[in-house]
Design goal:
Layout lengths: L4 H12 L3 H13 L4 H8 L9 H14 L6 H10 L2 H23 L7 H16 L1
Helix pairs in contact: 1-2, 1-4, 1-6, 2-7, 4-5, 4-6
Length: about 130
């Protein structure tokens, strides 16, 4: 993907905002790449934080529309095209869609949240991966 780690986490958070399993895994990763607690609260509530950059807001608007299963409004399409390449736009759409599918599986299969030490191990692994 051509998306930055922050962009990837924003798309995922929008997609999994109502699924505790996905949120438990991705909120810490989002914090690690700079998403604030207030921004997390707004995203989880289905709102785009106003203090994000124009590109980040466009990404969130686009991901919210995809996750709602709606046609992308012209305004949102124009914003995302002004801030991202065609490849990046496809990456956002695929990442949002795949995250929604994984979240649905986690819900449907009632996947339990791992113990805190397992989540910490995963977070450390992800942070090493992002750094390298």
């Amino acid at each position: 993907s051509d998306l930055t780690p922050l962009h990837r986490q924003l798309a995922i958070l929008v997609a999994v905002r109502e699924v505790h399993y996905g949120w438990a895994h991705h909120a810490p990763l989002a914090r690690a790449v700079g998403v604030t607690e207030q921004q997390l609260l707004l995203l989880r509530d289905g709102r785009v934080p106003k203090d994000l950059t124009a590109a980040e807001r466009a990404l969130c608007d686009y991901a919210f529309e995809i996750s709602a299963g709606r046609r992308i409004p012209q305004r949102v399409a124009e914003e995302v095209h002004a801030n991202f390449s065609p490849r990046q736009i496809v990456d956002i759409a695929l990442l949002t869609s795949c995250s929604m599918a994984i979240a649905a599986l986690a819900l449907g299969l009632e996947v339990p949240i791992e113990p805190p030490e397992t989540l910490q191990f995963e977070l450390a692994w992800q942070q090493r991966k992002l750094g390298g």
